[in-house]
Amino acid sequence: MTGSPPSAAWRAPRVRATEYTPAVLRFPCGDCATGSLEIISATGGLLRLSKPLIRGTRIKVMFLTQGGPVLGAAEMLTPVSWTEQPFRFVALAQSDQRRLQAITGCSLKPEMPKPVQIDQDVDTEHQWIDKYRDAVSRNPPPRPLVKRMLETIVSGTK
Fold first, then answer.
1. φ, ψ for residue 10 (rounded to 5)?
2. pLDDT tens digit string along 85-114?
3. Whole-number Å distance between alpha carbons of 156 and 158
């Protein structure tokens, strides 16, 4: 885990996502949720979710950047709206930290938490990404409810 939080005098630069950036949240129990990344910084970000999570919930968050995937342990903070909730990274592998720095143009200041190597997470990172890609390719997007109802009615009248 990282050290103490950065001092209030210095705030990491934020970058707003210019296009839709899906994010996957994995809970300690193994459940997953999806959302989209709205804002990112070297220390955390803002997610758009279907419903907010409980403040303090620990998750693994994964999203894709131009430099590659980022997977980090995070803590959910107090929601700012019914659909937007900030998070802060509590642990990141050095490769993920470098990807975030490339996006935000932010290098770590001395008072910033140092990136930590998460050997176990790094070992499983590629397996988890491959598993996610397989699941997405197997599950077609859901059809709208009205279309499904009409199909059921039409097939029932034949």
1. -120, 130
2. 999 999 999 888 888 888 877 655 444 455
3. 6
How many structural domains are present in the chain?
1
CATH number at residue 118: 2.40.10.220
User: Do the strands 44-48 and 15-16 form a parallel or antiparallel pair, or are they unpaired?
Assistant: unpaired
For 68-124, where are the E strands, in sequence order? 68-76, 84-92
Question: Which residue's structure tokens are 């990141």?
Answer: 92
Which amino acid would we find at residue 88?
R
Span 4-19, pLDDT tens digits: 445 455 667 777 877 8
Does a structural domain hold residue 3? Answer: no
- Encoded tokens for 5: 């939080």
* Residue 2 within any structural domain of the chain: no
Domain range holding 63? 15-157
Residue 140 lies in a domain: yes
Cβ atoms of residues 17 and 40 within 8 Å: yes
Q: Is residue 73 part of a domain?
A: yes
**Backbone φ, ψ for residue 75 (5° rounding):** -125, 130
Give the separation between CA 127 and CA 130, rounded to whole angstroms. 5
Q: Which amino acid is at 108?
A: L
